[in-house]
Amino acid sequence: MPATVAVPASLQALLHGAIDYAGLFPPARLSMEETVRRYLAHQAGPDAWMLGRLVLPAARLADLGALPGVLMPEAPLRLSVLAGHGAAPDTFATNLRADLAAIAAFQQCFDAEVRVEALEVRLPERLQRAADVQGVLQALWEAIDHAAPGSVPLTALFLEVPRSERQRALVEAVSEALPAFDLPRLHVGLKMRCGGLRPEAIPTADFVAFFLAACRRAGVRFKATAGLHHPLRHWDAALGVPAHGFLNVLGAAVLARVHPIGPARIRRILEADDPEALHFDDDGLAWEDLHAGLEQIREARAHAATSFGSCSFAEPVRALRTLGRVP
Q1: Segment 27-49, tens digit of pLDDT
Q2: Which of 109, 261, 298, 324 could form a disulfide with 265 if both were Cys (CB 3.0 to 4.6 A apart)?
Q3: Topology of the domain covering 9-321
């Protein structure tokens, strides 16, 4: 695509602020200093319109605070922080309270330099029964309310359901319970892992379609993470399996919000690997006979498909450029 050609308005709407930068995480595993340097460089670059928050674990906040002042930007860093861990619900609750206390103290100490806007929480691995979901969510909510009633500028909370034989039932139970915890000041949603370092870490298109349909049905937001380095569905030669594309995932979520399509048709969008299958222009996004206008895309991004995390910002942008989607 020549540099003089503008990015279609629909693609801008779909990808505006969509890529949360997670350079600390594998496979990149950058140092804190290098991660922040790259984030600030991307923030100052021509593709900054696609950049979202900086992602880091609560355990690394001290490393961020220890960086030389020269690394700190004029505007506050927008952070999404991973908090809470533990296989059992009681261990999870204890660790979550400790992480939230550290986050609140960090925000108070560096109030001018950072804004902890989002939390990403992995639910306990031993959460097996849908009947236990309400209790875990209530404990989580009370911990957040106690640790950060107003001192942390949180606007979003994303909960990840660990992979297990019960994952689908728990995704449904959590998604159905979340609307009761959604507040004007703090929106809650689910987090979906789309890849990893092993072939089995990549969920099937059938599961991703199920996940998107469950979020749509419950009216909750979601964030995706891991494995979304390429715009389109493709064969991952290193892992020897098909991998998901971020245009497929975001596009499917948008179209599923606009049209009453079921998991089977959502799956077909997820599996589309033809660069021309998803059509972007200044009027909207289209796939086959489905269309979403600009305002519908923006609304879906705000209330459904919020963002996706990537250990590289340059890689997905470079892949978009290779496809001729951006100059």
Answers
A1: 999 999 999 999 999 999 999 99
A2: 261
A3: TIM Barrel (3.20.20)
